[in-house]
Design a protein that fits this description.
Layout (H helix, E strand, L loop, with lengths): L1 E4 L5 H10 L8 H9 L3 E9 L4 E3 L10 E3 L4 E12 L2 E9 L8 H16 L3 E7 L3 H9 L3 E6 L9 E7 L5
Parallel strand pairs: 6-7
Antiparallel strand pairs: 1-2, 2-5, 3-4, 5-6, 7-9, 8-9
């Protein structure tokens, strides 16, 4: 697996993965393109060389076409966006294609964000996660995230958001 900076060419796959991973309102291509231009936004993708063809077709109506990777191609399988907001980091988005869940992809992306936060001198990283997303909460807790509060009925389906934060550890 390789983690690299997101490019404009990755956006259709990233949006498809967001939808397949359960993000209810995936960002638009213009929103992702805007993130790539902001100096306070850091976007990465995880990719693998796929042993077999992969096709990403969302269950949602999206503003991007389905994405296909032939066997042997470098396929985007996850992404993360970190914001530098007033001296704190915020994980704005983290999604992994469901076919690659529990294979260390989310962990590798989160480690990349923590390294960037440390390099920027950020003291904390904040995020919000759906109350029903226990696997993500478990991953976040393994990085030292703690629950700070809730936003009732935050998501479009009425589900609560759990607010979490973690201290960024600086290494010498």
């Amino acid at each position: 697996m390789n983690i690299r900076r997101m490019t404009l060419a990755d956006i259709p796959a990233v949006i498809q993965i967001d939808a397949l991973a359960g993000i209810l309102l995936p960002w638009s291509p213009a929103a992702y393109a805007g993130e790539l231009r902001k100096p306070t936004s850091f976007c990465w993708v995880a990719e693998i060389q796929t042993p077999e063809p992969l096709e990403y077709a969302s269950p949602l109506p999206l503003s991007v076409e389905s994405v296909s990777y032939p066997s042997g191609a470098q396929a985007v399988i996850g992404s993360i966006t970190l914001w530098d907001t007033a001296g704190e980091g915020e994980i704005a988005n983290l999604a992994v294609h469901p076919r690659f869940w529990r294979q260390g992809v989310g962990r590798a992306l989160l480690q990349t964000a923590f390294h960037q936060a440390a390099a920027l001198g950020l003291k904390r990283i904040l995020l919000e996660v759906r109350a029903s997303n226990h696997a993500a909460q478990q991953l976040y807790r393994s990085f030292g995230f703690i629950e700070d509060g809730r936003r009732p009925h935050y998501y479009s389906n009425g589900e609560d958001a759990i607010l979490m934060s973690a201290t960024v550890q600086f290494s010498a």
